[in-house]
Amino acid sequence: MRRTHVGEGVNMRPSPCPVCGKVLDAASMVGGEGRPKPGDFTVCMYCSNILRFDGNFSLRQPDDRALIMAQRSDIWPLLERVQRAARAVREESGNFTKRQ
Q1: For residue 32, is it within any domain?
Q2: Contact of 28 with 38, CB cutoff 8 Å
Q3: Is residue 2 part of a domain?
Q4: SS (H, E, C) the chain
Q5: CB-side exposure of 88: number of CA atoms within 13 Å?
Q6: CB of 95 within 8 A of CB of 22?
Q7: Residue 83 sits in which domain range?
Q8: In a domain, 96, yes or no
Q9: What digits encode the pLDDT tens for the residues 56-100?
Q10: How many domains in the chain?
């Protein structure tokens, strides 16, 4: 099993996932350290959807252009691994999310 380096979690302004509605209040950098920047991608740990931080650090679903750019970059395999890990944790814990 391949490991993905995820940096230490940092507290963020609470923002609901635009897909599942769960409020996320922390984030970790995939493949690095530090705080996320506007435009960075993240994965909702509740529903495993790929999201993006906007200029106010609210979570948004990335548009098609942003997803295509991500798929062509080094970040894509990391995002996929984080998605798989989030799904595995959710399945192990039996935590199936419901919209808040």
Answers
A1: yes
A2: no
A3: no
A4: CCCCCECCCEEEEEEECCCCCCEEEEECCECCCCCCCCCCEEECCCCCCEEEECCCCCEECCCHHHHHHHHCCCHHHHHHHHHHHHHHHHHHHCCCCCCC
A5: 6
A6: no
A7: 10-91
A8: no
A9: 888 999 999 999 999 999 989 999 999 998 899 888 877 654 444
A10: 1
